[in-house]
Amino acid sequence: MGDLFENYDIIGAFWVTIQLSVLGAVGALVIGTIVAVMRVSPVGVLRILGAGYVNIFRNTPLTLLMFFSVAGMAFILGLTLSENLSTNAYRWAVIALSVYHAGFVAEALRSGVNTIPAGQAEAARAIGLTFGQSMREVLLPQAFRGAIAPLGSTLIALIKNTTVAAVILGTTKPEAAGMLQVVTENEGASLATFGLFAIGFVVLTLPIGVLFTRLSQKMAVKR
Amino acid sequence: MKARRIAAAAIAASVAFALTACGGSDDDSDEGSGGGGGDSIKIGIKFDQPGLGLKEGSKYTGFDVDVATYIAEKMGYDEGDIKWVQAPSPQRETMLETGQVDMIVATYSITDERKEKVGFAGPYFIAGQDLLIRADDSSIKSVDDLDGKKLCSVSGSTSAQNVKDKVAGVNLQEFKTYSECLPALVSGAVDALTTDDTILAGYASQASYKGKLKVVGQPFSEENYGVGLKKGDSEMCTKVTDAITSMIEDGTWEKLVASNFGESGFKPGEGNPPTPAACD
Known about the structure:
Chain A is an all-alpha fold. Chain A has helices at 2-7, 10-40, 44-58, 62-74, 85-114, 118-126, 131-146, 148-161, 166-169, 176-187, 191-219. Helices cover 80% and strands 0% of the residues of chain A.
């Protein structure tokens, strides 16, 4: 077991997993918030676009998005993000993770918005706030607080879904799943290695689950 | 109403479970007779490697398939007795250890790490890592020209790790399979594809890529393809080794190489045909 850590940069691989998770989560939160606002906006076209985004990306397999990003967008359409192929794949992986999980974030936020009594939105408009102002000052802060639990689930799913990036990242700059492939190729499949990588993910996700449960209780809007 | 539905679902589930349980025990009994050298033999091959082991509908073609058929016939099995099983690279050791297959003939390089887990007979072919490039590309003549070039390989494979050690500043894209690399190579998104020359020759002679791609022909590693067997089965190993020896001596080996790789203009590298090593 000790050999495994000596011969393979397993910690480094999990560090890449963490990087992908953090960057993907930030991207997903930004895109997801925009899409959620579009879905509850008073403009019909924006609502349709928002719903379209959620339906397209939430229902497309992530593996397909990942592979299409490098093989389709970069190699066929020529949209390379870096001359270095592994940096290119890494950036596309972050984009694919953000775009895919943004759909789930948007739906979590929309459900958060829906927990707010309609009277509040009406009151905000009645005192003269614009749609943007009422979103920013009244609705979104409460929506985020109400959506903490589902956002936590999405984050945990995102962390585990970073393993899908192995289809384009390979083993040049491997995340955890890519490293597992290298180890399996060289040492053969063993229960110990599988267990080790599984424990790695539990260590990453379990505290997040506990944290988000706590937060959702503490931050819940008391009505 | 609701309770009845749940009961129905439970019954359906238990029936499904019982059925799968039956299927499982059937497989077990098969395994027992196959392993003892009874009426059928299970051979692990690649299903997706043109020129080596390829499944097209219900037909199997390629050099590994032909070699395996020859060995099985020498051991007293008819062609109809062979059950082909897909043996993807990462699962090969496990499949032999658990007895899912009796032997594996699937571009299986003999290495010391693998010898700790499984037994080998052979080698029956010596391959080498090489480069596949566009037919009109004259800038790559050997692995030394790779600096600054874009390269594609399969993630986790020995070839990918090798080329990383050989060329320090390698610009490598890794995909799950070589087939995914090919369109990128043809379109110019990458400049070369690297793995064993046999595999490359197989792709270069595929109908859709004929004339567009070529193998460089400067192998920079040595891969000894062996027949994977259960560890410690020296009786089986001797039989397989004898079969390989006679295959090389009676000219069949030469014929199989020509029929499977001839179209791409690929010639087996130095050391071929090999002399199989003695069994432990």
